[in-house]
């Protein structure tokens, strides 16, 4: 797949993300070890690696939600604090309590909070944007539901809608395909492709190799450090996957990969 | 201020029978709490332990008013509370911690109202709340001793099951183990331990003896049996020093015991934090 | 007790000034606890509240010994403990649950030992733990009213931040909002509520007033605004009912209020239209009947 840049694209000379020699540790345990990575703009980039590889930590370090012990992170050419409005982050679905008394629309409106700042409340313009985003993820009819009434795939789409209303130039998604059906997966990928056409960059983590193989432009194979980074067909090879996933992966044939997780 | 370097300082209190009994009872409780505390700390049951300590209260009061065995009364209330909490927290809308918080306060309020019915009870209330090692009678000692023996025996026999259900309930279920029943057993053992500790450290501080030594042990030891052992030793040391301090300084024994345990915890924590920082600097 | 339908039954007790004060106190504390309890329940801070109320005990004893303001001392120690919970809980080998357990053990033990030195003053442990709303002073009432207003304003202004941090801290961080700051604000409010409610229902029982009405409301509502409203209604009405019962039956007020709260919660848990136990059982029974036996 090639990338089609449009006229209204954001600054194309800047890398979307550049990470230089970052190290992250919890206590004395190092989870990200001296990682450097530069992500080009206007692409869909997949972050693959086994459970516990530090994928979530890397995403959190990029959005500034995880303190970095050493090294430097720049997003859209600037420190994260200067460009927070232009970055949307979608946490793992399992990280929040879905029985929380919030409606679907309430959750999507949270995406606007970053732009609203401390004192303003969401107004009719924000509401319109939120409804439009819900239309895009085909959930506008369920806007008044309590979020716990939705299925897993619908919940993931609510999170995506929340990221869309931020109108961000960089979208970071943590395991968006965990436990959802293939229909939802293709809905999500269609929307992400639309984002790419607008010149926006998508960086998503997953341990499901089949989905990224078909839909991503580039892949980062990650296990505490960058094992490989490049176009899908270069990264999606037996040796790379083997050294990323260790003995948990068995490679069958040239492009058929069978991942055995514990 | 007694001379700390003279043997006499340590022997003198032991001449008194009430100190002997109290110390022995407190030691049994400390060891028991060390073993059960290992489960409490590794499974994050501190709040449940705290709540049980309070929730046994109405049972104890009813037993007191009916002139019945206090420990038995407390045990019944503890078991009922555990069942109630586990039933309520099955609702998706209610977190376990919230269920615990509501249950124990309501139980305690019930106990307090009951207690008000009897005039002589106010002194008994504060005794139960903060405990008094020196009020242990011989029959209490025998009862505490036998409870301790039974609990340790059950933990010994069922050790494998308890550990399996605690750390991999999915596997345990797949192996055909009855997970809810085994968990219930663990909670009942916890309740029994708490009731046994009521008299020595009081119900507000029981949870301290459960949590603090085991938390300290967890900082220095990894395998569960080691945590149990270290926790029992720390608990015993804290108990002995606490009893001596309360004897000489004339302060509440429960408070003194717990403060000693806390000192050990914070000291260990500081040493560990220093070492971690040192290691990380070495790694860079 | 005269007839329940006779207005005099309810009005006569109110001719006594101490009952008037108590009624106002109960209403104010009910509003406060419902408001802050909603966030405590949603953020899962029950155990933190438990630790803070132990810390408040130490604060009261300490400030009594040192001769400072009781409320001030209580607040200060409660916040110190909240901060320590944050620091210790982040240590991987301790965990939040254990950190809280250790800290409140330490503070309560300290309180009890210190109480030894304050024999003459804070002698009555039972009053401290169970509260005495009938003895509340007008100054304390004014203070409580002030705290209610402060809490209402803060939560009104920062509603969206508090909700966001409670629901999805990761997103809040990514938006550049400091979770520590907003959680800290919530903890300050919690400390305020605990300290203020100290006198009404007592240190031991205040947790019930924070948790039970909010949880009851959670079973009945689907959004946060209505949840706060229902929690307020439950807390205030339990408070008033409890106060009257304790007046008529001559039993301590704090525990009575808590028992009424508990009863309301229990009934709701059983009968709530959507999440109630009875509804769930009926649903399962119908499901079982609709599936033909194999």
Task: Report a brief summary of the structure.
The complex is a heterotrimer of chains A (262), B (284) and C (294). Chain A is an alpha/beta fold.
Series of H and E elements of chain A: EEEHEEHHHHEHEHEEHHEE
What distance lies between the first and last C-alpha atoms of chain B, to the nearest angstrom?
Answer: 50 Å
Largest sheet of chain B: none
Total number of helices of chain A: 9
Distance between the termini of chain A: 33 Å
Number of strands of chain A: 11
Q: Whole-number radius of gyration of chain A? A: 18 Å
Unreliable runs of chain B, pLDDT <50, ≥5 residues? none
* The CATH top-level class label of chain B: Mainly Alpha
**What is the CATH architecture term of chain B?**
Orthogonal Bundle
Q: What overall geometry of chain B do the principal axes of the alpha carbons give?
A: globular
Which strand-content bin applies to the residues of chain A? Answer: 25-35%
Mean pLDDT of chain A: 83
Gross morphology of chain A:
globular
Notes on the protein architecture:
The complex is a heterotrimer of chains A (262), B (284) and C (294). With 262 residues, chain A is of the alpha/beta class. Helices cover 31% and strands 25% of the residues of chain A. Chain A has helices at residues 55-63, 104-109, 113-116, 124-136, 152-164, 182-197, 209-215, 232-235, 238-245, and strands at 17-26, 29-39, 44-48, 70-75, 87-90, 170-174, 201-206, 218-222, 226-231, 249-252, 256-259. By secondary structure, chain B is an all-alpha fold. Chain B has a single domain (7-278), classed as ABC transporter involved in vitamin B12 uptake, BtuC (Orthogonal Bundle), CATH 1.10.3470. Chain B has helices at 7-11, 17-43, 46-65, 70-88, 96-116, 121-130, 138-167, 169-174, 179-201, 206-220, 224-249, 253-283. The radius of gyration of chain B is 20 Å and the shape is globular. By secondary structure, chain C is mainly alpha-helical. Chain C has one domain (2-290): ABC transporter involved in vitamin B12 uptake, BtuC (Orthogonal Bundle), CATH 1.10.3470. In chain C, helix 4 crosses helix 10 (179-201) and helix 11 (206-220) crosses helix 12 (224-249). The termini of chain C are far apart. Classes of the chains: A alpha/beta (262), B mainly alpha (284), C mainly alpha (294).
